[in-house]
Design a protein that fits this description.
About 35% of the residues lie in helices and about 10% in strands. By secondary structure, it is α/β, with parallel strands linked by helices. It has a single domain, classed as Uracil-DNA Glycosylase, subunit E. It has a four-stranded parallel beta sheet with strand order 3-2-5-6. Strands 1-4 form a two-stranded antiparallel ribbon. Strand 5, helix 8 and strand 6 form a beta-alpha-beta unit. Its main location: cytoplasm.
Length: about 280
Amino acid sequence: MPACAGRWRSLLLLRVRWQQRGVTPPLPDPEFFVIPMVNNMTYLAPALATLPAAWQQVLATPAISAQLALIDAQLADRAAAGAVIYPPRELVFNALRHVAPADIRVVIIGQDPYHGAGEAMGLSFSVPDGVKIPPSLRNIYKEQLSDLGLPPPASGNLTHWAAQGVLLLNASLTVEADRAGSHGKLGWQPVTDALIDAVNAANPGCVFLLWGNWAHGKAERIDAARHCVLKAAHPSPLSASRGFLGCRHFSQANQWLAERGRGEIAWGGAVAQGGLF
């Protein structure tokens, strides 16, 4: 079997696995391996191969593709040593599958994925349907209620945000089970900074919601003359009362987008029976 045929068979099997999770990724273009050295990667190859072309081009620069190769080698070694890594490797780049850089309307930057079993799904702050809503996301829902009058949703799955052009990006895209921040020095920051730079350059104007000091540090990468940059404390229970609750970022984002003809985000979801709070 030719190597390319083998890769396509692997991707078709991966597509079936994603459909079983309730996720249906698009099939990639036959020339999907834009990123140099991806054929030599083991851990990240399936997720990279299914990325839309616009994001592959961002990651295809020599410096970033070399960085990805270094990350891939470390992830493969950790997995071989028995480490449990979140999110599942096919969802590492899940945030990029929903929208191209030029079409993004809102960017929300998190720090790293949830480190509990079954929580991380490749979208910052989001958890799959049926998973207990984490404390930070509960505070996000509290702010939505205060700001927009939206009843808290029953689920913590934020895929409906992503589908509307909200990029839910973590600064580090992987983490090990029960070890918060464990991949903070793995080398993800140059990669995710490149993704932020791509949005900054290619997008006609979007809203960056920067929550917490870690996200605030990304402000210097953003052209504030073209984009809207809103800062607040992190929604974690440790800091939410110090500037996140009451920030009104959701209404401000929608107002800014509407004034520029980009449409508002429908932030609400299916309402929790009996109330979440």
